[in-house]
Design a protein that fits this description.
The chain contains 13 helices and 16 strands. It has about 350 residues and is α/β, with parallel strands linked by helices.
Amino acid sequence: MTKPPALRLDARLDMIVLRKPFHISGHVFRDAPVLSVTLTGGGSTGRGEAGGVYYREDTPERMLAAVERVRSEIEAGLTREDLRQLLPAGGARNALDCALWELEAKSAGRSVWQLAELPSPRPLLTTMTVGADTPDKMADGARDFANAKAIKLKLTGETDLDRERVMAVRKARPDVWLGVDANQGFTPASIAPLIPALVDCRVALLEQPFARGREKDMDAIDFPMPTAADESCLDLAELERVHSHFDVINIKLDKCGGLTEGLLMARRARELGGKVMVGCMVGTSLAMAPGFVLGQLCDVVDLDAPLAIVNDVDPAVDYTDGMITSAADVWGGSAAATAR
C-alpha cells in the first residue's frame, strides 16, 4: 500500500431528506445529516460518506468532531492501515477510509475493485426494505416495490402484530425472497410464538432477533431459517467472538469503519464457514458504492437506502429489476466501469 502525499481534508455535514419517516424497533429515522469527507492529494481526489451508528451514539456531529481532532495526522498523509490504528471502528473512519480507497485508485489509474483484487463487479440482487407500520401499510409498501425480487421487513418485537405484518406482506407479494429484521426487538420467549408464522410465510432470513450482548440466547432456539447478526457484530474483533451464534454476518461499513475492515471481515467470515451480508445505514449512492464493492463477496445484499431519500447524488447507483448496479462515475476510481 503506497503512502499518499500530504493531503487536503474537507469534512462537513450534509442533510439527507427522507421521503417519509422510517420506523424500526426502538427508533424512527427522519431527515438526517451525514458526514461527507473529501481528500485531495497528488492531483487526485477521494470521497467518502457515513451516516454513523445511532445505537452506539455515533452521530454525524460526533464523527465530524472525531475527524477534526485528527486533522493534522490525516493531512500529513496516511495509509488505510494507518487509519485503522488512528481511529476506532465507526462512521468517521468509514468516511475517511472510503475517501482513501478512491484517492488511491485515482492516483494509480485503477479501480477500487482492482486494488481490492476483485473481478469486475456484477449487478447484485438487493433487498428492498419496508419499515414497520400497520400490516396493511406494510403490504402496500411491498406492492410499491413492484420490481423487487427480495424484500426485508422491519419488525418491532410485538409478536401478534409482527405475525400479522409478515402474513400481510407475504400475501401481497407471494413471489419474493422475504427476510425479517427485528433490530433487537425480541426475547426468546416472545419470538417463539412467531416462528411458525415465519415458516409458513417462507421467511428466508431472520436478522438480529435479540439484544446486542445476548448472543448466547440464540443457542436456546433451534431456528428453522438462517439467522444474521447485525448489531451483535460491529467489526473484525467482534466477528471472532459472535460468529458461532449466527449463520450470517451483516457487515455495514459505518459499523466496521470502512471498506478495508469490511473486506477483512467478509474473507474471515468465509474462513470460519459462515455466510456474509452487506447492509447500510441512511445514505446516498456515494455511501452505497463502496458497499457494492463489498457486496461482490456477499450472499445477501441490502443496499437500498437511496430509494428512501429525496436528495440522492447525481450520478447515482442504478436500481433496475430488483438489482443494484454501480454507476461508473459515482465512486471508485478512473477505471470504474458499471456492469450492466
